[in-house]
């Protein structure tokens, strides 16, 4: 099914997507319509243009591919599925996500991956090809964030207050030296070969989607950030 989104409000567009009996939906001329793919199961959506806020929120086992940038709250509280952004994303990417994968070719804004959480085998993954803004992984309770820092830029790999309040999960940073002021409850160390085995499948998927060379990407120093296990707040948020 093909939809020309020119001049269509977000409610009409989403109704057409959800009511379609076809599994594959192609959206052309997307111009900021919100909530595309909200709570959607078992569909493939390809978007040409720029979707608005909350793309794929509560996504449940569908795939969304954007040929362009996305705005704020991409993948908000998503459960399962995949979101691929062939561009950059706004603030709060992966807010509260609890499963599935989000892969951004370019950069993302503030508060990416905040309140991410994991439960048993449901482990969310967020991979950013460029860099991230401030508050990356704020209050992260589970899941994996990978910042690949692939492009020449004067920006830091992550902005201020990275991993503030983290009490679960991991953040991998591809850099020779993070150069970040981290809270006391964050442990930062060079990732070992064993550590990197955890992210190779995700980086390989990223490289296949965006045309990168896996060996070139992985042949670099990574740091891994984890919460201090003595953090007294962990028991309030994590399933043990």
Molecular structure report:
The radius of gyration is 17 Å and the shape is globular. It is built from five helices and eleven strands; from the N terminus they run βαβββββββββαααβα. Helix content is 15%, strand content 26%. Strand 1 (2-4), helix 1 and strand 2 form a beta-alpha-beta unit. It is of the alpha/beta class and 240 residues long. It has an eleven-stranded mixed β-sheet, sandwiched between helices. It has helices at 10-19, 193-197, 200-210, 214-218, 234-237, and strands spanning 2-4, 24-31, 44-50, 62-67, 81-85, 101-104, 125-128, 141-147, 168-174, 186-190, 222-227.
Question: How are the SSEs placed, and which strands pair?
Answer:
Blueprint (H helix, E strand, L loop, with lengths): L1 E3 L5 H10 L4 E8 L12 E7 L11 E6 L13 E5 L15 E4 L20 E4 L12 E7 L20 E7 L11 E5 L2 H5 L2 H11 L3 H5 L3 E6 L6 H4 L3
Parallel strand pairs: 1-2, 2-3, 3-4, 4-5, 5-6, 6-7, 7-8, 8-9
Antiparallel strand pairs: 9-11, 10-11
């Amino acid at each position: 099914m093909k939809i020309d989104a020119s001049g269509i409000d977000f409610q009409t567009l989403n109704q057409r997507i959800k009511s379609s009996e076809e599994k594959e939906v192609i959206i052309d001329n997307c111009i900021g319509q919100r909530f595309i793919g909200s709570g959607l199961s078992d569909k493939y959506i390809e978007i040409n243009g720029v979707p608005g806020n909350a793309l794929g929120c509560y996504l449940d086992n569908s795939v969304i591919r954007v040929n362009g940038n996305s705005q704020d709250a991409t993948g908000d509280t998503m459960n399962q599925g995949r979101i691929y952004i062939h561009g950059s994303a706004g603030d709060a990417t992966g807010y509260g996500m609890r499963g599935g994968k989000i892969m951004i070719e370019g950069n993302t804004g503030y508060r990416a991956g905040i309140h991410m959480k994991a439960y048993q085998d449901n482990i969310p993954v967020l991979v950013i090809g460029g860099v991230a803004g401030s508050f990356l992984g704020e209050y992260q309770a589970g899941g994996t964030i990978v910042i690949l820092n692939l492009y020449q830029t004067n920006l830091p790999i992550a902005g201020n207050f990275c991993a503030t309040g983290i009490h679960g999960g991991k953040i991998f940073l591809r850099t020779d030296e993070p150069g970040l002021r981290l809270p006391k409850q964050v442990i930062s160390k060079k990732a070992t070969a064993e550590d990197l085995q955890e992210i190779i499948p995700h980086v390989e998927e990223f490289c296949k989607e965006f045309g990168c060379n896996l060996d070139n990407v992985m042949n670099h120093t990574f740091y891994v950030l984890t919460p201090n296990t003595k953090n007294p707040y962990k028991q309030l948020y994590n399933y043990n």
